[in-house]
Amino acid sequence: HKKDWKPNEPLIPQRLIERISWIKKSRGIPKYVKLKTGWSIRFFSGKASPPKGLAADGALFDEEIEKQDFYAEISARLISKNGRLIWDATPEAGTDQLFKLYLRGESPGQELVENFQMKMIDNPYLPAEAKQAIVEKFRDDPVAFETKVEGRFALENQPPSGRLVVAPVELRLD
């Protein structure tokens, strides 16, 4: 999909960056960014072992994390600094960790987890033609339509492998 990418300004301006260590510089994959503010950003693959022994102010998960121990370990890294975790993902067939966290956020009386749902179709930054193309692409696939267009979990069962099988179902939280 690289041919569809449009050039953008960097999220963090170069004037704020002191140094960058790379996992693979030729592909633009950073490992560590030290900012002039004193802050630092570390990057980890969700397919690797989770980091241990560090204290973090915040963490961002981009998409589902397949390793079952990653969420628990990162959560432990946030405790001493009262840190925050943001988990941004299309709810597809990865693991049940994201779904369980979502259910916690929907539980009355709890204040630690907050859910935000954004439908692809409501994204103001996507061109109308692109939205229509996605709707057409998944129109005949109800599972993909539910997850990719509507942004909903569509869980039917959980087989012994621990992987989720998706099917369009109505979720009731009562």
Fold and architecture overview:
- There is one protein chain.
- The protein has helices at residues 68-78, 97-106, 128-138, 142-149; strands at residues 17-24, 29-35, 40-42, 58-62, 84-88, 155-157, 165-166.
- With 174 residues, it is α+β, with helices and mostly antiparallel strands.
- Strands 1-2-3 form a three-stranded antiparallel sheet, with no helix packed on it. A two-stranded parallel sheet has the order 4-5.
- The longest helix has 11 residues, at 68-78.
- The termini are far apart.
- Mean pLDDT is 81; it is low at 156-174.
Quick recap of the structure?
Helices cover 23% and strands 19% of the residues. It contains four helices and seven strands; from the N terminus they run ββββαβαααββ.
Secondary-structure content class: alpha+beta
Strand content: 15-25%
The separation of the N and C termini measures 41 Å
Number of helices: 4
Number of strands: 7
Shape: globular
Task: Give the neighbour order of strands across the main sheet.
Answer: 1-2-3
Low-confidence stretches: 156-174
Please give the radius of gyration in angstroms: 19 Å
Report mean pLDDT, rounded to a whole number: 81
Q: Residue share in helices?
A: 10-25%
Give the ordered list of helices and strands.
EEEEHEHHHEE
The largest pleated sheet is described as: 3 strands, antiparallel
